[in-house]
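Protocol step 4 of 6.
Sequence for Alpha/beta hydrolase family protein (Salinibacterium amurskyense) entered exactly as in the expression construct, tag removed. Do not edit the line below.
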Amino acid sequence: MHVILIPGFWLDGDSWAPVTRALRDAGHTAHPLTLPGLRRRDTNRATVTLADHIAAVVAVVDALTHVEADGSENGDEDERPTPRIALVAHSGGGPIAHAVADARPTCLARIVHVDTVPLPNGMPINAELPTTDGEIPLPDWSAFDDEDLVDMTAELRSWFQEIAIPQPALIATTPQSLSTPARFSVPATVICCEFPADQVREWMSEGAPFATELAQLTDLELVDLPTGHWPQFTKPTELSNAIITALHRT
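Step 5 output, structure tokens:
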């Protein structure tokens, strides 16, 4: 299966390195993405929009869809099998993945949300993060909740600070724009790290605003992986196994 890896805030495609290796070892074709404005620190990212990030992922989905269609032995385009493409998204990448599902619902076999959930129409990813000149630097650790930082050792924190790239502010502050009901039918797995799956189920049943989209998914599984907000750093083997298991269910 083609697996497109979407990083969270302040991270590029290399942040998925342990997961990328595990996916390839398991026989999948991994595509770790570095989204617009995240390639270098010394770039003007103030004008990079949420739509730009969504379009970047959609472009990869479209390219892989054409590759699979070209390789099909069936000459009837209408009867070609659905492409085997999955998205794996961390943190702020989750709403981007969901927007891709809104744009290309029939092209996706599954979305794996890593400590994130799909946000509803009209809700921004995180409009409360402090911005400077159109970008969001990685905040001081004191800005994060204790649950975020579980298993984040001093060494991991120092390394994260070294590799972190400021996030384009418009990615965090622009409201989500969704319109295609078919997005709800894309199978989804949520890997729950900061908060257990039972807590997520409670938020869904209570109608928590950020969980309303999640509650409407028709094929959803919640998987516990207790650690902090960055399991690709703190529990890379366990995260890789959870992702591969989810893909095998597809």
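Step 6, annotate. The chain has a mean pLDDT of 95.
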